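Figure S4 source data
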Amino acid sequence: MMTQEQCTHRNNVQSSEKPQVYKVGIYGWRKRCLYFFVLLLMILILINLALTIWILKVMNFTIDGMGNLRITEKGLKLEGASEFLQPLYAKEIHSKPGRPLFLQSSRNISVNIVNSNNQLLTQLVTGSNGFKARGKMFEVKSTSGKLLFSADEQEVVVGAERLRVMGAEGAVFSKSVETPHVRAEPFKELRLESPTRSLVMEAPKGIQILAEAGDIQAICRNELRLESKDGEISLDARRIRLMRLPEGKASTSSSSSGNRQTVYEVCVCPNGRLFLSQAGIGSTCQISNNVCL
């Protein structure tokens, strides 16, 4: 057993020693590196915040949209020029009230209408080569709804009151032309011409050619034919002149008027040919019918 003096001595020895202290934390170069990284992180956060504010300012971000794009109750609203790099799908595109709608492309602008099977029904293409429209029918109407022009596979209809052809060569038709009335402009002449083929005008009830303030000329190279199957052909004028008719020559035995005869009669051959014959006391057509041969 330990005596009282030994216990007292041991306690004195332990009390004379200093207590040990354990340090908790980061010290030295580790602490400096930590402060450096914290400072770098704060700088990056400030730069990121400044860039975000700058982007919001440049792109004009607002509660309603960004830039020229605004989101409204009726849809999207674009102000100013806008460029779309990908296809645009929209139900309706219109401009501001009183402002035009301008579409611009460096190549062409195409508008396609397809069905549920993605088959092309109607196409409208405008480009550097021209303007093309594809569809079953094409119509142009006035503001009042009157049909001005329409075209389909069967016919082309011009609903305007007047069709004006400004070309110097006029209008060229490869097939027949059906019209109830052909009229020239006031103080202008009307000319129907077929340079290399024949010109035929037909009507079931008749053809009327009227020139109230001018002349009518019918010129051809080979044959001019006026035909009426069920009716008659009337030449109603104060003076009718038949130019360059051939003259029939009578036989010497039957000629009694001599060379001073200046009066002629118009004779008709069985084939319809007209010729002149010197007039006599009686008809001289029978003795001058050598022209009919």
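Figure S5 source data
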Amino acid sequence: MTEPAGRSAPAARFPSIRMDMTSSNYTAAQLSRPLCVNGTQWILYLLEECVDNVWEYCSVVIGLVSMFCFLLSTFPQVYEAYRNGKVEQAMSFGFLLFLFSGDMTSFAGCYLTSQLPIQLVTVVFYIFTDLILISQFLYYKIKNSSTRKSPVLKWLCFTWCAAGTLVLLALPKLIIDNSITLDSQNPSTSKSIEFTGYVCGYLASVFYLCSRFPQLYKNFQRQSTEGTSYLLFALAMMGNGTYGLSVIVVLPALRGSKQTFIIKHLAWLIGSLGVLILDFLVTAQFIMYRKNKSAKSKALLSVPEVEPLLCEEEEFSV
């Protein structure tokens, strides 16, 4: 399959993976515009990436599964917080703050290293869901600490969500336009900007790793995971695991230096695989504290069965 000469296919991969020009099937065309020969058309159309072998194809599919898991991960916690109404007692604000900081620096890293527009838009979506979780946390904290109901608080929450949605809809166009401007800069400036982007990638990894420790301590302090949704961490584990796999799978298809490829993506690998290990500890807490919860519920259920009998004996003796 041959791609029209007017369409370019930049050498980049989702999520946050950039490939060398030698690792994809490109053919020089007029005005240095690359052509993709024998590439998979739906990947070329959706991600603007040339994929012509099974390794790269599997890497793209696994990467899309990773993206899908991350996109769904926050919704169960939003619902759990709405259903429970005591999210400020269950969630650690440090967890949410570090998660938001990680997504912000990850966005900066993806932007400065000229990743695909779809990657940038997805990271913006992550930031938006982070803001929803933080707003929900603050809403219930203020609501539960107040002695009277305030309709102003609810209207402020709705206004904030509406404004955030409008910004989210307007950002993709701005991101694409700014990415084109960034790519047109001179090589020396481009290298310094790219270096700054990789620094942001390492900062994002640090923030993601630090995000789990406040929640682990919060669960340990409460001896409970009630009020938090395990699907938030389960889907994050699936997303981080499939992301790391998508990087490893593409290695046999590389014609360039595998060491250089790994070094370029080491920041994102450390963040994803490191958080995956920490989420196993969160999973262990869910298993351990579920037993404590069942023991407490059994103790509470046994109390009403004893009290009436004691009352009847006292009345009979009198």
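The longest strand covers residues 26-28. The two ends are 96 Å apart (CA to CA).
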